[in-house]
UniProtKB/TrEMBL annotation:
InterPro entries: Methyltransf_11, SAM-dependent_MTases_sf. The keyword Coiled coil does not apply. Residues 39-127 form the Methyltransferase type domain. It comes from the Bacteria. GO terms for biological process: methylation. One of its GO terms (molecular function) is S-adenosylmethionine-dependent methyltransferase activity. The keyword Methyltransferase applies. This is Methyltransferase domain-containing protein.
Length: 226
């Protein structure tokens, strides 16, 4: 999709990836952390950052490169910071939780863990959701779509092994339910209805999910440095 169209569509959406307030709350509980400071990397319009602030009472900093997304955080209590997720302007040990729902893939699972590790205070954790294969033999249509968009996508077992090899303890995993995809795709489909052929890639994404959704999903991870 053309970048201008992408931003125009997604700026009006309540979230920029599959998820839900219920999943965010569950992942907070699974983390076992009582945070005072949370960093939401790739925060978008605040679908995770806003409930994180409400659930935990922590100071939440939301980072994104797209200024209109950050502008949407005005009045929410979330501190907006415009920065790249691979060049975060924060000191070591600044956060109890580093959060990234649906955004770590932009730098890659392994690189995200390597880049963000230094930001954790003692006892802290990274919580992220990652697109993954749920089968070793996905349908050709699903494979073609994801190989084009995220060629490094792995299975849960592959990501668990990679995290452990990089010095992380995988404290919890959780496969997001279909209802979390609906919370993302239903508003997206409504927004796409007003667009023409230029939005075909986004429509294809929805169609691939409808046809092959059992082959892949998003998995939530709680990762603790060893």
């Amino acid at each position: 999709m053309d970048e201008e169209i992408f931003w125009r569509v997604h700026a009006g959406l309540p979230r920029q990836a599959p998820g839900s307030a219920e999943t965010t709350a569950l992942l907070v509980r699974l983390s076992g952390v009582t945070p005072r400071r949370i960093l939401d990397v790739g925060c978008g319009t605040g679908a995770s950052a806003i409930p994180l602030a409400r659930l935990t009472g922590a100071h939440v900093t939301g980072v994104d490169l797209h200024q209109p997304f950050l502008d949407a955080l005005a009045g929410t209590g979330v501190e907006p910071v415009r920065a790249s997720m691979d060049d975060l302007p924060f000191p070591d040990g600044a956060f109890d939780l580093v959060w990234a729902e649906g955004s770590a893939y932009l730098v890659g699972f392994d690189r995200a863990l390597a880049l963000w590790r230094r930001l954790l205070a003692p006892g802290g954790a990274i919580v992220l959701t990652e697109a993954e294969w749920l089968t070793d033999t996905p349908a050709a249509g699903a494979r073609a779509f994801w190989d084009a968009g995220y060629p490094g996508m792995r299975t849960t077992a592959g990501n668990v092994a990679a995290a452990m090899a990089a010095g992380w303890r995988v404290a919890a995993t959780y496969v997001l339910p279909d209802s979390d995809w609906a919370q993302y795709y239903e508003p997206l489909a409504a927004a796409l209805a007003a667009l023409g052929p230029e939005a075909a890639p986004a429509r294809e994404e929805i169609d691939v999910r409808a046809a092959h959704g059992s082959d892949y999903g998003y998995t939530g991870y709680v990762l603790v440095p060893r």
